[in-house]
Specification:
The structure is a homodimer of 499-residue chains. The first copy, chain A, contains 15 helices and 12 strands. Chains A and B meet through helix 2, helix 3, helix 4, helix 5 and helix 6 of A and helix 2, helix 3, helix 4, helix 5 and helix 6 of B.
C-alpha cells in the first residue's frame, strides 16, 4: 500500500514519480558501485540448491503496488545470494565477460530512451550510431571495407542469419519462397568437431537438420583439417548433396583454437560455398597487432560474427555480424507490411529488413561509450594484459610435474589436466584421472574464490581456465593458481594413499 | 587523454573507477529524470534527415580514451536530436510502449550483474526468478496451469520457437535430425490477412517458405474467418499438403482485432494442428476482468506469446512464450556440449535447452520490479484508463461528419479515415482521399506534439492512433484530438477550394 499522501495522485496512474526515480536510482547506482568495489568478498558461485530462491518468492503477484525500497531490499535479500558473479575477478569459467562502467551507463540510457529502431524513422540516431559503431568495430578487428555490419543479440542469432543468407544463395532454389520441403536438394553445412553447438541449432531451425551437418575432424591443435574438408565436400557432391556453407572458427569454445581460415576460404571459393567465420570470442584478439594473424583469410569469408559482449567489456547483449552480401541478407529477410512503410524507405536504412527481430534497442549506445571511454589503445592494453597472464599460467602448467597442458593458448584460455606422476605411468586415459580432475575443479570452485569450468578433449576431461574479465588483476590470477595448487596437493595426497 | 593523475594507475587497466561510475551514473539518472519530467517539450519525431547524425560522428574510434563527461555531452548534443521519443506522451504510433521507472532500474541492475543465465548454475536466481515471474504473468493474463512460460527477446523470436516446436510434432518426419529437404512433406502454416509479418519471416527461416504459408481471409471486423480456415485445411490435405500450424492473433497489429480463437482451436484439434496465438499486444488486455473474453479459447492453444515490453511498462526486450509442450520445445532445441554439462542437469532448469540463444540476461528482474511496484490493481488501472480514452476518441470519430472509423476498438488503438462530406458522396475509395489522409498524418506529425501512424485496410489508407504509454495523460489525448481537428480543418479547406 502506498502511504505517501503526496504521491497518491500520481501513483494511481502514471509512472514512478521523478523524485522516487532519482532516489531509487541512486540507491541502485551506489549499490552497484559498492558491489564492484567489494566484489572480491562474494563467493563466485552462489551456495544454493535448486529451488532455494524460488521458495522465497511468493507464488502470486501482489495485488497492491509496493514501495521500491522494499523491492530493492528483496533484491539484495533474495536474489543476490543466488547470483553467480560473472563480475567476480575470480570468474575464470566459460568465457569471462565484463559489463564495464561505461557499458552499464549506456544500458541505463538505452533502457530510459526505450526506442524501437526497427525503422530509420523510429529512431534515426540509433540506426546511424549503430552504423558508425559497426564501422569502428570493423576497423578495430581489421576487416576490409567490403564487410557491412549490424548487430544482433547473440552470436547464435547472428550466425543463424548468416546461414540463412547462405541458404538464399543456393542456385536452383528460391528458399524464401519455396522453402526446403520440395527443393529436391539436400543441403550440407560443414563444421569441425570443435565448432560451437549454436551452429547445429541453426541447422535445426533452418530446416537443414543435424543430418545436413557434416563434422570435419580437427588436428592435434583442435583446428579444422582443411584437406579433410576438401575431401568431404567432394564426397558429398558425388553423393548428391549440395554443399552450401562452411563455418570456421577463430577461437573455439573449448580450447580457443583458430581454424586455418585462409585454406578453408580457398576451398569454399573453389566450390562457391559460403564461408561464415565464428569469431565471437577470438575476433577481439585481432585488436592487437601481434594477434592480427588470427584473422588471416577472414577477408575472404562471406560473413563473420564477433561479440563485443564477450571480450569488449560490453554488457549483454551485443553480437556483431559482418557480411559481404548485404543484399542477400535483405533478400532473405525483408518483408514490409503497409503499416511499416515510410517516406524514407528508399534513402534510409531500416534494420528490420535484415533479420527476424522487428524490435531493436539502441544497442550501439553502450558500445559507443565503451570504445570512446577506453579508446583503442586502452582496449588493446586490457586485452594484451590478460593474454600475458594466460601465457604465464600456461608456462607454469608446462613446468609442473603433475599438470599437462592439452591445447595451445593463442588467447587467454588454458586447457590442462592433472595427471599424477605423469612421467612414470601412462594412466592418462583412465576414468580415474578424469574423476580426479573433476574433483579438483569442484574443490577449487568450492572455495568461492575461483570458478573454473571443464571440457572434454580427445575423450579426456580437461580443466578450463578462461581469463578476460576487466576487473581481474594479477593478484587474482596468482590466487587462482595458488588455490589450484593447494587443492591439488591435498587431493593428490588422498589419491596416492587410496591408490 | 586522461589528465587526472589520481586515476592514471586505474585507468591504464581495469574498469571505470567507482567514483567516476557514481558521478557519471548520477548524471545519467538525473538526465533521465529531467528528460521524463520535460518530455512534453521535445518534438515526438526528430527533425533530421538521413545522414544528419552520422555526419557528426567521426569515422574512426578514438585512439586514446575520453572523459565520460565529454561522451555524455555528445550524447545530448549529437544523439538526442535524432531520437524518436517513444517516451513522449504524444507517441500514439505503432504500439505505444513504456520503459517505466521500475523497469529502467531493473535494467540498470541487470546490466550491472551482467550474468549469462544459460544454465541454472550460471545464475540460479535468474532462472528461478524468471520461472516465478512467468507464473505471475500466466496468472495475470488468465492462462491455465498447463502452460509453461519462458522469455525471449521479441515476439518474432518467441513465435519462431513455437512454430519450430510445432514442426517437431509433425508425424512421420524427424525435422531436428533430417531437416525438411528430404521430408517428402509439404508443410502448411495458416495465418490471416491481418497476421503480423514476423510469422512469414519465421516461415522463411524455418525452411517452410512463403509458399508454405496460406493466408485466410478475415471478416469485416478483420477477424480470421474460421469456416474459411476449415475449408483451406481440407483443401490442402486433399492437395497433399501437411497442415501443421495455425497462428491466430489476439490484437492484430493494424486494427487490434481479435481472431475467434475458440473456433480456430476446435478446427486445429480436429486435425491435430498446433495452434499458436500471437497475443503480443492483446494478451495484456486480459489483465482486465472486462476484457477476459479476448482470451476465449486460448486455453486450448498449444502456445501463446505476449509481450510485457509492449503494454506492461517493461523496457525492451521482453517477450513471454507460454507453451503446453515444454518437452517438444526442449526436444527441438536441446544440444548440450560437454563444456556446458553440470551436476544439476537432472534436477534444475537450464534455459539454454529451450532455444537458439545461449546468452540470457537476468531479463525477469525488470518485470519483477514492475509487477511489484505497480501491483496487479495498479496495472489494471493504467490499462483500463487508456482503453477508456480510446473509446472516447472512437465515439468522437463516430460523431464527426468528416471522419469514418474503419475498425472496432477492443483495446486502445483506433483506425479511422477522413472522408470529406462523407454523407454526400461515395468517393471513399479514391486515391485522392488516400492522399488527403496521408497529408493529414504528416501535418499532425509535423507539429511534433503527436505521432500517428497509418495502415491500409481493404485497400484504403487509414490513420492509426494507438494509446498505451504510461506517461500519456488525458490532456495529451485531448491535445492529439484537437491537433487532428485543426490540421483537418485547414487541409479540408484547401481540398475543397482545389476540388
Amino acid at each position: 500500500m502506498k502511504d505517501k499522501p503526496e504521491l497518491n495522485g500520481i501513483m494511481e496512474f502514471g509512472d514512478m514519480p521523478a523524485s522516487e526515480f532519482r532516489e531509487s536510482g541512486r540507491w541502485a547506482l551506489d549499490w552497484l558501485a559498492d558491489y564492484f568495489e567489494n566484489i572480491d568478498d562474494f563467493p563466485v558461485l552462489p551456495r544454493v540448491e535448486p529451488g532455494d530462491i524460488s521458495r522465497m518468492l511468493p507464488s502470486d503477484p501482489p495485488r497492491e503496488g509496493e514501495e521500491m525500497g522494499e523491492i530493492l531490499e528483496d533484491f539484495t535479500r533474495i536474489i543476490l545470494p543466488g547470483v553467480t558473479h560473472w563480475n567476480h575477478p575470480g570468474f575464470m569459467s566459460y568465457f569471462s565477460i565484463t559489463g564495464s562502467g561505461p557499458g552499464i551507463l549506456g544500458e541505463l540510457l538505452c533502457a530510459g530512451l526505450n526506442v524501437n529502431a526497427m525503422l530509420w524513422k523510429t529512431c534515426p540516431s540509433s540506426t546511424e550510431l549503430e552504423q558508425t559503431v559497426m564501422e569502428w568495430l570493423r576497423k578495430l578487428i581489421g576487416l576490409p571495407e567490403s564487410f557491412w555490419g549490424l548487430s544482433y543479440d547473440t552470436a547464435s542469432v547472428s550466425t543463424m542469419h548468416a546461414i540463412a543468407a547462405a541458404r538464399e544463395m543456393v542456385p536452383g532454389i528460391d528458399v524464401r519462397r519455396q522453402g526446403l520441403c520440395n527443393s529436391g536438394k539436400r543441403l550440407r553445412l560443414y563444421i569441425s568437431d570443435q565448432t560451437h553447438s549454436s551452429i547445429e541449432k541453426s541447422a535445426i531451425i533452418l530446416g537443414i537438420g543435424l543430418d545436413g551437418v557434416r563434422t570435419i575432424s580437427s588436428d592435434e591443435d583442435f583446428r579444422m583439417e582443411a584437406p579433410a574438408l576438401a575431401e568431404a565436400i567432394k564426397d558429398d557432391i558425388r553423393e548428391g548433396w549440395t554443399p552450401f556453407c562452411v563455418v570456421a572458427t577463430v577461437g573455439t569454445t573449448s580450447t580457443t583454437s583458430v581454424d586455418p581460415v585462409d585454406d578453408i576460404a580457398d576451398i569454399c571459393r573453389e566450390h562457391g560455398i559460403w564461408l561464415h567465420v565464428d569469431a565471437a570470442y577470438g575476433g577481439m584478439g585481432a585488436v592487437l597487432p601481434e594477434l592480427k594473424w588470427v584473422m588471416k583469410g577472414c577477408e575472404k569469408a562471406d560473413s563473420l560474427v564477433t561479440n563485443p559482449h564477450k571480450w569488449l567489456f560490453t554488457p549483454q547483449e551485443f553480437s556483431a555480424l559482418f557480411c559481404r552480401h548485404r543484399d542477400l541478407l535483405k533478400r532473405a529477410f525483408s518483408l514490409v507490411p503497409e503499416y511499416l512503410k515510410t517516406d524514407q524507405d528508399q534513402v534510409a536504412l531500416n534494420y528490420m529488413d535484415y533479420g527476424i527481430q522487428l524490435g531493436r534497442r539502441m544497442r550501439s549506445l553502450k558500445l559507443w561509450f565503451i570504445m570512446r571511454y577506453f579508446g583503442t589503445s586502452g582496449i588493446q592494453r586490457r586485452i594484451r594484459r590478460v593474454i600475458g597472464w594466460a601465457q604465464e599460467i600456461a608456462a607454469k602448467i608446462d613446468n609442473h610435474p603433475d599438470f599437462v597442458r592439452i591445447a595451445p593458448v593463442p588467447f587467454s584460455t588454458i586447457c590442462f589436466r592433472a595427471v599424477p606422476e605423469k612421467s612414470e605411468n601412462d594412466g592418462d586415459n583412465s576414468a580415474t584421472v578424469d574423476t580426479l580432475n573433476q574433483k579438483l575443479i569442484h574443490a577449487v570452485n568450492r572455495t568461492g574464490r575461483v570458478y573454473l569450468s571443464h571440457t572434454r578433449l580427445n575423450g579426456k576431461l580437461a580443466i578450463r581456465m578462461a581469463l578476460g574479465n576487466i576487473r581481474t588483476e594479477k593478484r587474482h590470477v596468482e590466487e587462482a593458481w595458488n588455490t589450484l595448487l593447494e587443492e591439488w596437493e591435498s587431493l593428490k595426497e588422498e589419491f596416492m594413499e587410496a591408490g
